[in-house]
Each structure stands twice: as C-alpha cells, then as structure tokens.
Amino acid sequence: MTQTQTTDYVPAAGRHWALPFYDLLTKLLGADRVRKLLAEQAACRPGDRVLDVGCGTGSLVVLLKRMQPGAEVVGLDPDPGALAIAGRKAGRAGVAVQLDQGSADALPYAGGTFHRVLSSLMYHHLRGAQKEQMLREVRRVLKPGGTFHLLDFAGPGTERRGFIASHLHSHRALRDNDQERVLASMHAAGLTDPRVTQRVPSLAGDLLLYVAAVADSTA
User: Fold this and answer.
1) Lower CB density within 10 Å: C or N end of the chain?
2) Main-chain dihedrals φ then ψ at residue 63, nearest 5 degrees
3) What phi and psi, each to the nearest 5 degrees, are found at residue 146?
4) Tell me: the pLDDT tens digits for 163-172?
C-alpha cells in the first residue's frame, strides 16, 4: 500500500469510532445492491486499469475484481483504518487489489492511467471546491475514451422521506449535491456527455448513478 499526505477528510461512517459498524449499516441500507449496479454499469474489461476513489472498507474494489478478474483494480482512500479493513476483506475474498492512501482532490497517479474511475457514496462528503478538484483529477487520470461512474445521494428536495432520509438530506454536505449541479461540475471539469443513468430508492434516500467520459482523441 502506498501512502501520500492527505487533507482533512470525513471517514466512511461519518465518525472514526463508527468505522467498525460501517459495512453492517450500509448492508442494511441496501448499498451492496446499488454498488453492483454501479459495477455493472462500468462494464470493466480484461486488461482495464480501474480506480475506486474513496474506496472506504473495500466492498466495491472486491466486487469489481470478482466480476472481472482480468482487470487491475486500485482503491484509494485517505483513511488508513478503512484501508486496513479493505485489505483484510480482499484477503478473505482471495482477490489481489492495490490499496493506496491518498485524497480524491490530489490523485497520486499519472495522467491517462485508468480506463475506468468509479466512486461510491463518497462525493457528498467533499466540500464544494474539493468536489470540483476531484472531478478535474478524475478527468486527468482517465485515458481517452475512459469513463467515470459515480454513485451518490440525490441532493435535498428528493421526494423520498423517512427518518434516515430526512436526517441525511438536512446535512450541509448534501446542499450542493443537486444533480444539475453535479452534472454541470462534471462538464466544467472537462468530462463529456455527463448524465444520470438511474435513480434508485433506498432507506437512506434516493441514490443517483452518473456516467461521464473523456473524449476519445482517435474517434
């Protein structure tokens, strides 16, 4: 595992003490089902280099490697505790993945490195400027013709209600998660044809799947 200096971050469970309960909570909320939709959308191929930004405890990187053993899968997260859990999870699953410590707004990779970049339920944790910088970094590390696949909460105003949804949607982290703002930010970062592909109801509120691309210079 490589390490780089990281900025302040919100841990996967929102609080460091809650990290051991994160996988159980997300499973109860149906995150496994939606992560599979994200992985299927990415449609990784043998030989692809694939990056999961904000990989947390590694559920998505393990799933991606299981679904496409011929892909090279890399997970990045600023939280060493989450990465330790991810490493143990990959070991139990018998899959080889690369886990790196680093920040979404300063990806420690050369330009044009990855065929696919994914991010699951992390984007809303970033502040406005960090969101914009992350998207620019995603654009930088994607190869021409590569695609970015994002799963995150819909912003405030979603029609789904309930205690959990209301609690999450009142949080300031979701204020700029409106889908039109997310799509505009993707476009401003240089990603092409950004769009929402699915809206999925969950106990935690509506979730959106996005896709955007980097233009293929050979097309």
Assistant:
1) C
2) -60, -45
3) -75, 165
4) 454 444 445 5
